[in-house]
Amino acid sequence: MIILVCMECLLLFFKFKRPINLQHPYFPISEPSNKRVRPLAKVSSLVNLISPSKNGAVRRFGQTIQSMSLRDSKSPGMSLKASSKTAGPTPTKRRNSTLWSETLDVHQKSTFSAKEIKRQEAIYELYRGEQDLIEDLQLARKAYHDPMLKLSIITEEELAHIFGDLDAYIPLHEDLMMKLTEETGPDGTVAQIGQIVINWLPGLNAYKDYCSNQLAAKALLDQKKQDKRVQDFLQRCLESPFSRKLDLWSFLDIPRSRLVKYPLLLREILRHTPPDHPDVASLEKAITIIQEILSDINIRKGESECQYYIDKLEYLDDRQRDPLIDNCKILLCHGELRNKSGSRLHVFLFSELLVLTRPVTRNDRSCFQVYRQPIPVRDLALEDLQDGEIRMGGSFRGAFTAGEKAKNVFRVSSLDPSHGQSHTLHVNDVYHKQQWLNCLRTAMAQQQGAPPRAQQGGAKLRKNSDVCYFTLTVMKLWKSLM
C-alpha cells in the first residue's frame, strides 16, 4: 500500500513539473517560476518569415541612401502561429522613452522657455538614439555573433562578412555620447552642439564598407538560414524578449537607418535654435557635412550593388555579353516583370544597358541567365501601351483567342535593326509601371541627350516594325501548313 502511494506521488510530481525556460542558448537558465512557458513555434525556414518583394516591384538605386529598402513595419515574429492556444505571446523588451523635459522637476521646467525645451528635447533625442544604437550593436555581437561562432554553425569568416566590423562602430558612437555628456551643464542642458558634431562626423566614413557590403551580406545570411541549426538558433532568438520581435537582419540594418536620421535630427535641433544663437552656423555646416558623407556612402553602395548583379549574370552565348557591361557603374532599377507569353523575367536597367534575364539556380547559387540580347540604352525605344491594347499569352496565339486584355503594359525595343527585338512587359500595378517608365525615360534622356518624351516617335516606328514581323510570322505559318 505504501509503495502504491509513493508511486502516485512520483507520477504527480512529473506530471506537474514546470519546464525549464530556455530563452537563449547562451543565456543563463532562469529559476523555475509559476508562469507557463510558451513552447517554441516550429517553422520550416526563417526565410519564410521575411516578407517577399511583390512581383513587379521596382528596386531603385543610385539616388540617396534613403532609397535603400526599409523593413516592413510588421515584425516577422508576428506571423508565427503559437503552438499553444492558451499560451500568451512572449513580451517584448521595451525601450525607455523618457523625454528630456520629464527628467526635470516643476521648478526647473519653469525656468526654460518653450523654444529652449524643444531644442534640448531634440539634442536629447540625438543622445538617446546613440545610446540605443550602441545597445543594439552590443546585442548583435553578444546574442548572435559570439554564440553562433561558439556553436560552430557559421564560420568566423562568414560571420565577419555578415556582421562587418562591429568593434569599430561601437566606440565611434560611444565617443559622441561621451562628448555630449561632457558638455551637459548642471541644469541638464547642452549649450552648444554644432562643433561637437562637426568634429565627430568624419568618423561615419567607416560605414562606407559596411553599407557597400549589405547586399552580399544579406544574401549570405539568407543562404545560411537554409541550415537547420541556424534556423533553430535564430528562431529561439526571435522568440526571446531581448529581440523585441526583430530578426537578426533588422539589427544589422539599424546602423544604416541611423545614418539617414542624422540630417533630420540636426535640422530639428537647428529649427528650435534662435537665429542669433552661436550654434546656428555650426549646425548648418554639420548638416552639409553629413549630406556629403551620405552621398559618398550612397555612391559606393550603388557601385557595389551594380557589380554584385553584374557578377551574377550568366550568358548562354559569349555574343550576348555586350562590352558596355564593363562600363556600367550604376544600377538604376531592377525587378520582376512578365513578358507577353506570361514568362517571368528579372529585368535590370543599368546606366548603359537594359538586360532581361531568367532567374536560375546553379549548384545552389542563384544567378540570372541573360535572355536574348541586352539592349544599349542609347538604342532603346519605349512605348507606353494603353490598358486593353494587347492580349497576353503570346503575340500569335493572342490574336486568335479571347484571352484577357492586359493592363499596366509597356514595350521596349531596339532602334538598331541588327538587334531586331521587341519586348512587351507586364507590371502588376499602375504605380510600379509608372516607376519603370520614369526610370527608363530618365536613362534614355541621359544616354541619348534628348528630353524623356522624345523617344515616343521611335516607339511608334518600332510598332510598325512589329506589325511587319507579325505579318511575316503568319505567312510562314500558313506556308508550312500548305
From TrEMBL:
Residues 330-445 form the PH domain. The keyword Cytoplasm applies. Residues 69-96 are annotated as: Disordered. GO terms for molecular function: guanyl-nucleotide exchange factor activity. Residues 118-300 form the DH domain. The keyword Ligase does not apply. InterPro entries: DBL_dom_sf (IPR035899), DH_dom (IPR000219), Endocytic_GEF_Adapter (IPR051480), GDS_CDC24_CS (IPR001331), PH-like_dom_sf (IPR011993), PH_domain (IPR001849), SOS1_NGEF_PH (IPR055251). GO terms for cellular component: cytoplasm. GO terms for biological process: intracellular signal transduction; positive regulation of Rho protein signal transduction. It is found in: Cytoplasm. Keywords: Cytoplasm, Guanine-nucleotide releasing factor. This is Neuroepithelial cell transforming 1. It comes from Sparus aurata (Gilthead sea bream). The gene is NET1.
